[in-house]
Each structure stands twice: as structure tokens, then as C-alpha cells.
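Researcher: We're teaching a course module on how sequence relates to structure. For the next exercise, students receive a sequence and then see the predicted structure as C-alpha cells, so they can try to spot secondary structure elements on their own. Here is the exercise chain.
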Amino acid sequence: MIIADRREPETTKQGRLYVPTNGSMLTWLHWRCDQDGVEFLVDENEQGDYILATGENTVAVERKTVRDFLNSVSDGRLHVQVNKLLAADYDHVFLLLEGDYWNDEGRLRYNGNGYTQWRFRAFLNLLTYLQMSGVRLVHTASQADSVEALMALHSYFGNQHRQEVRDRVPLSHLREDLGMLAAIKGVGVERAQALLEHFGSVERVVNATVKELTEVSGVGQKTAEHIRQIIEGRR
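Model: And here is the predicted structure for the students to work with:
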């Protein structure tokens, strides 16, 4: 069974039911499910855009275009969503990242027009951090590819001889600490790593003064002051 979240913009309410909007990706997914004999349902998922229920495995999939992904990092939504997905009772969690990393819309390529740019190295570091945290990554080029990726994942985990693949490892204290610091607006993964390497623990970061925080590579006066404000509950 594949359960699509009814809050996806590609669903329409008909009576008491939510159904795929004509011509949308969900229409194509519904058709592919019918082709392969997979039950398809639109419902309100607790977490995740898609839930793949296959025998003993329950797989959550969060789908984002590259643009959505970068926006969710900027406004802090991504860390909240990822933490909730990992804390939920799913056997596996996937991020389905759709689109070209290098397009201008995703703002990963320098174009000289004064736009805010994402350094590709920082982008890759974030993807690495997510995978180390327990989120598996699937990259697709288009909506059609995303549909096929969902069908492939459902088939993979529904295969009886693969149901023993249940290797999700709980987050270590280090990863939890990293995620906690990285979630602070303006800190991010790279600065969080630098803070932990410098101080050795979140407790020491929390107790550090502004001056001590600025001794960390990549942490300036404004960032240090913002961290102190967050810790002291002034923002």
C-alpha cells in the first residue's frame, strides 16, 4: 500500500474523500499503483508525504524539489521535519529530492546577479549530515522519475527476502547534539560541527560567553550574540 498525504497540493477534496488532482503527479502515481496491483490511498499522514506499507516494513518518504529543499533549510522547517520523521515509528526514512542541483532556480550555481547563493560544498555537507542521521537519499530528475522511485521503493521493501533489512540505527548523542545546534538559525551544520569540535559538548557551548564563541572558526560576533540570545530565551 502507498498512502499519499492529503495535504499535498496535488489533492482535491470530493465529498469526504481526498483524491489526486487531474494531471498531477499523484494521478500518475495512482495509475502506476493500479498497473502493479498496489493499493493506493490519500489520507492525512502523521509524518511524511508518502507512507509505503509493505508487510513488515513501513517506509516514510519526504518529497522535496531542490528549491523547496533549500527554502526549508533557510526557514528552519527541514530540521523540524527530519527530527519528527526519525522520532516516528518508521522502519526507514527517505528524502526524495527532485530536480537539478545546478539549476538557477535552486541557486546553487553562481550567476553574478547578486542573488543569495548556496555554496555547493555546504549543500553536499547538509545531504551528508542527513544521511548520517539516518535519512536515506533518493535523487530524481522529474515528477515522472519520482513516481517510478516510489514504485521501486515499494517493490524493494515488499520483496519477502529483503524484509530483514531493518538496519536503522538510533541517533547517537553526537548526532543529536549536532542536530540541536545546527537547528539554530544562522548556525547550520558546518558551524555546529566547529562548535562541537572546539568545546567538546553542547553543555559547554551553552555555557560559553560571546567572546568564547567567537574564538570558533566561522562564528562571528553577530552569530555568537544570536546563539546567546537563543540560549537565554531572548528570541
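Model: If you want an answer key for the exercise: Residues 14-22, 161-172 have pLDDT under 50 and may be disordered. The first helix runs from residue 25 to 36.
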